[in-house]
Design a protein that fits this description.
This protein is mainly alpha-helical and about 325 residues long. It has one domain. Helices cover about 70% and strands about 0% of the residues. Strands 1-2 form a two-stranded antiparallel ribbon. The radius of gyration is 19 Å and the shape is globular.
């Protein structure tokens, strides 16, 4: 079976960005282990790449092959979130303790942590899948709409992904009941089919200039993390019913997408995309400040990502100036 991977740099970038944002930048995989337990860090981060990276690659390739846009990427990203947290590491069904914490009680029923499941599904769709793909495109603008993997490579990546999910499921244990497994498998199937059938232009911005400032776009990008943080804070006591938290999370995420689709035009789109991506990243930098002492080295990760964003922004401004800020592609491809 022939294996062809081109261009290699965008593939490598996505393989590294997809796990680094949700794992290293949030402290879920402590970067301090790189010094204190390098072998353990290498194994852990290697599995992260094999899970997150291959998932993001498969979704990106499917989007290009089927000529789909961001709506499909988000739906498939949600399916990825269910596969990871529900079928691989089983946090949807965690009885107590980290990482779920109070959400094993708040918003939990019938052996399923529903509010955690909703929040993590949205988180993975946005931060583990959509954001790394967007950053890779901003880094390598010529890679949009181009297939990176041939058929043999897609099969290989898919085999690695499925194998890693199966390995995690075997090692973690405390999995779902047969009823819960069947329910989430059905939801997974619906998301996959919906992603394949949803119109490519569903979340495509219209023609013309943007009608809001880049600062407002950045705020819109931050709403998903702010909504999730509000859910975590609400879980500490009976301040808000769990279903209210779920509705709030959905409303804020819908508001962010609505602002972008309605008020961001195709002109100078690359800088609008960068503003949205920066808005998604900045709350994580503040999050890292809270864990400076409990997770040594986490500020170094923030500093690295802040530097990368600075370089992205400078490169995007240069490209926009050279082109006179023309329109750029609006779809995932």
């Amino acid at each position: 079976m022939r294996i062809l991977i081109r261009p290699r740099l965008p593939v490598l970038a996505l393989l590294l960005l997809a796990p680094s944002i949700p794992e290293l930048l949030t402290g879920s995989t402590p970067v301090s282990n790189l010094i204190y337990n390098p072998a353990g860090f290498a194994v852990s981060y290697g599995f992260d790449i094999a899970l997150y990276g291959t998932g993001a690659l498969l979704i990106r390739e499917a989007s290009v092959i089927l000529a789909k846009g961001w709506a499909s990427a988000l739906l498939w990203g949600a399916a990825y979130g269910i596969a990871e947290e529900g079928f691989a590491v089983h946090t949807f069904f965690e009885r107590s303790g980290p990482p779920v914490g109070a959400l094993t009680v708040y918003g939990s029923a019938y052996g399923v942590n529903w509010l955690w499941a909703l929040g993590l599904t949205v988180f993975h769709a946005t931060y583990s899948i959509a954001l790394p793909i967007l950053l890779t495109y901003l880094w390598f603008p010529g890679s949009r709409g181009v297939r990176w993997l041939d058929r043999g490579s897609v099969v290989l990546v898919a085999v690695v992904y499925v194998a890693v999910v199966a390995i995690f499921a075997r090692l973690v244990g405390h999995g779902p009941s047969p009823e819960a497994f069947a329910l989430f498998a059905l939801i997974e199937a619906i998301l996959l089919v919906a992603g394949a059938r949803v119109p490519s232009g569903l979340l495509r911005v219209g023609p013309g200039p943007r009608r809001i400032g880049r600062g407002t776009i950045g705020v819109a990008g931050s709403l998903e993390w702010i909504a999730w943080l509000a859910v975590l804070l609400a879980s500490g006591g009976p301040r808000l019913l769990a279903w209210g938290s779920a509705v709030g999370l959905a409303v804020l995420d819908a508001l962010a997408l609505g602002l972008v689709v309605r008020y961001v035009g195709r002109e100078d789109l690359e800088r609008s995309e960068f503003a949205f991506a920066t808005g998604m990243m900045v709350p994580l930098f503040f999050w890292d400040l809270l864990f400076t002492f409990s997770i040594p080295g986490i500020l170094a990760v923030s500093g690295l990502f802040a530097y990368l964003l600075y370089r992205f922004g400078a490169a995007i401004d240069l490209r926009a100036s050279a082109r006179g800020s023309p329109a750029t592609p609006t779809s995932l491809g």
